[in-house]
Structure formats: C-alpha cells, structure tokens
Design goal:
Blueprint (H helix, E strand, L loop, with lengths): L7 H5 L21 H22 L12 H12 L21 H22 L9 E3 L3 E3 L1 H22 L3
Antiparallel strand pairs: 1-2
Helix pairs in contact: 2-4, 2-5
Length: 166
Amino acid sequence: MAIGFRDLPDLVLGPLAGRPDAAWYQAPPGKWNAAQIVEHLAIGLDASSRTLEERRARDPMRRRPRTWLERAANLAVMGLRWFPPFVGAPAGTRPADHVEDQAAAAKFRSGWERFLSLEGLLLPARRYDLFAKHPRLGDLTLEEWMRFHVIHARHHAKQIHRRLGQ
C-alpha cells in the first residue's frame, strides 16, 4: 500500500500511540528522540502550510529557476527519496533540546490539517501558480510540498521505529 499525505498521522504518530511518555524521549547520544523528530516534522508542516496559506490571495506566481544545488537536492530527495546524511536539517526546522511530546503531536496534527484544508481551497485552480520556497529544494507547489512531507515523514518514521526498538 502506498503511503499518501492523509496517512501521515498514522505513519508518524501511530507507532507512539499508547506508549508511555518515556518512549518519546529515548534516543542514542547525539540523536533526536521521537518527540524532537515529531517537532521537526511539525515545524516543516506548519511553516510550509502557513506560507502557502498567506500567499493564496496573491496573483499567480512563477517558479524561480532552481540553482544546480536545488536541482541536485530535488533529484536526491524527491526522486531517489534519499536524505544525504552529511546535510543536516535547515536551522529553522531543528527542534529544541527538550520538546513536550503532546505539544509536538498537536502541532504536527495542526499543520497536517491546514494542508488538507488548503488542498480543498487551492486545487485544482492554483495547482501550477502558487509556490512556497523550501530551503534546500527551491520553490514547491502545494502538491509538491505534500509529496515532500510524505517522503520526509517516511524517512523520519524509520528513525522513530528504531528509537522504539521496532
């Protein structure tokens, strides 16, 4: 079964459901715990959905040409679904040292729900003329952002499973 955007809460939060709070905070030294991973994903969902929401009243936009680095990053992430381990998360998406698990989960759900709302408001009319810039991939449409979030969440869901010993 293919994982879609609507499956994100199950993919990310499902493995943590019913677990004691302590399970959210297990991590190898120097690595993010599950609460921090959920917060990282929530920050991305929140920022990208808010940017698209703010821009929806604007006139039609055109995608800026991608740099060679953005083209390479698009191939790696969107094409090969590979996040180079030597490239860390953009500064604005890094979680705090301590993240409250339920607050991170609520923020994650809120960003996810905003995307679902935007999908109904913007598609198909704004499919090709509304963009929000990703710090590594360049300008992305709503659908490209949703695809990115699925790929990104799958990457981090594997880490959550490892933290939980699954």
